Amino acid sequence: MKFYVLIFSIFLVLLIDAQAQNHKYELWKIPSFFRGFNVLPSATHQLKDYRDLKATGANLAQLGIDGLYFVDPPYEVNVDAITATDKMVGFCDSAGIYYILTVRSGPGRRDVYQEKEGGAPKSTIWKNKDEQKKYAQMLRDIVRRFGKDTLFVGIGLMVEPNPLFDQLNINAKALKTSLEKESIDFKAINQLFIEEVRKADANIPIIVQNFQYSCPEFFAITDTFTDEYIVYEFHSYRPIGYASNDKPNTVTYPGKFISINDLKQIDFDKNVLKTNVFKFIDSVQKETDKPFFLGEFGIMYEQGGGTLFLNDMYEICMEEGWHFALWVFRGGGNGGFDFESKSPIYWETVLNMFKYSGIDDDYESDEDCIKIYPNPADDYLYLKSSEKYFPERIEIYSMLGNKLKSMIFENQENRKIFVGDLPVGLYFVKKGMQSVKLFLIH
User: Fold this and answer.
1) Stated pTM of the model
2) If we measure between CA atoms, which residue out of 169, 170, 159 comes closest to residue 211?
3) How far apart are alpha carbons 357 and 317 in whole angstroms?
4) Is the pLDDT of residue 437 over 60?
5) Which of 22, 38, 113, 218 has the most crowded Cβ, counting Cβ within 10 A?
6) Is the pLDDT of residue 321 over 70?
7) In this structure, are 42 and 189 located in the same domain?
8) What is the count of structural domains for the chain?
């Protein structure tokens, strides 16, 4: 039996000019479709780890890769990084899981973790035009290398851009003033990156993070872009002093912690997370009508109320329609952010984030209302609707608009279609002239 891991999702679309559709981006438009983990390069990771990741029910691996060119001049090709990236991508392909390539380093840009924890020299890309162009070319080359892979669903331009590395604990207004004073035009940098990626692939979803560790509060001054296939990513280890606290069982949620917006301690609970920490995310989401991705979140060690905190974060994602990836799968170091090593209730809480409802029994008074399950399908696809509106004919189309199957239902008893002979992929079930449902086979 093939393992079900992808989200149950039914939505109406018109099957018009199917070849022109950007099917990878269509997945991003499904609220909270992508749910998974961050994965870092590791010599110990094997195919089994990626299959185990998929077995959790997750359908996404955000691969944090080193740049294919070195940081320092003459920016030579980083063969080890290419080998590691090819290995990670190969594991995703073999396990059958969607992946994002999110770039952690490249010409002029050091890994943010190395800057912060390792004491590495600070990145120089922010004002160096030559490094910006070289980094953009690297992004183009990455997309050319992997763009035809149907499981490659996004290129993340840069992990946690931090042009003002030593000025984190300031509010958004002060950060904007400092960026202008330093003549750092981060929007122009990202625009250059976007334009170079588009030379390689007109349709690949481009995932843009906000500056200063992609903290949610700084979306108050975020840049937006006109590219049609943009996804905005943010990270959240809020509240400060709780999610990233390096001393287990010393703090409790709900509780009083520092607010970056207010620069003082406030009482944090789910409602405050929504109305204080994430209010600017909500504002930009409404303004742009683009998909949003909570690309990193979690809790370093067990703390009081830890599972409640994780569940609150999950519920907010579902309420807002955000895609999400937990930090991190089998790579937390010393047990940090490793949910499998925590008390079993923590791992159970995480696993519950990847469970999808199969089918509900409520029907709208709409003759196009038809339920298709399971989604994803394995061997058979089952249909359910009210007796009044049950279709006589169902047709299955590929994403390119090719009709693959046509079934005529002579009675109400035979309500299943064999799809086990179709390859893994995304398909449409069509009823009538315009009523279409999206489903997946895995």
Assistant:
1) 0.81
2) 159
3) 16
4) yes
5) 38
6) yes
7) yes
8) 2
